[in-house]
Specification:
The protein is mainly α. Helices cover 66% and strands 0% of the residues. It contains 14 helices and no strands. Helix 2 (27-42) runs parallel beside helix 14, helix 9 runs antiparallel to helix 10 (183-197) and helix 10 (183-197) crosses helix 14 (253-283). It is globular.
Amino acid sequence: MATNADPSAAPGLSTDPMVVLGTLPGVPAAVDAVRQAVDNLYGHRVMRRRSDEVTSEAALRGARGSAALAGADWPLEEVRRRSDFSADDQARTVGAALRLTAEAGRLLGVWRRSPMQALARLHLVAASGAAVDDTVGRPRLAGEPVDEPLISVAEVDLPEPPEVNARLDGLTALLLGGTAAPALVVAAVVHGELLCLRPFGSFNGPVARAAERIVLIGSGLDPKSICPAEVGYAELGKAGYLRALEGYASGTPEGMAVWIGHCGRALEVGVRESVAVCEALQRGAA
């Protein structure tokens, strides 16, 4: 995590840089808004009886949103009805997003022991619908290309492999060392760092969003995985997503706050989507 946020601005917090990020202007309000929205969703009466159905719908809608950001903007019902995701690049992208969303809920134990092992597994799952070679499931080496057209249009430099490895090691150390930072902050950092690093040759965006989902599940903020932030990122638009990512990449306090705020708004939109699912289930319309 590369940041120019000044730990001295928060005395006593310098050993936990994620906590420092949680004190940036606007971030506490974003954290509070997300917590209130999530608590309201979990308190919905439908969640007492039909939470598994809400989880399934959140997974489907989250995968659709992640695939849309990666260039396969399919209608929800098309994603729902399809069974073959091998026909072309768009179909493979949607298939990868669906597999990643399903896998995220199963990787929490691995993530807690070894985030890099979990990321390798996510990349393997994402790439399994295409030709798999020895680049899959490991960080890229010098000279290996990166296929990430969405991020390539942003003003975010592509780090060289030595920097990628060093920053992945730093992120892993932060995660394994534990943090008192709010779940939104940790999830936003994981998501933003992986997007900026693009450690794999492909599927970095979908993998980054799946990793964010794992953090939200494991933190206890969204243990049932019913808050599909990917829906929010897609609804808020690619342009806003990339502008916010450029803020993260800048490493400045202002830029980091913009990114965390954007992640918070996306999560709130995802919560609203699941509230709508709950309301539909309650009316018998879904």
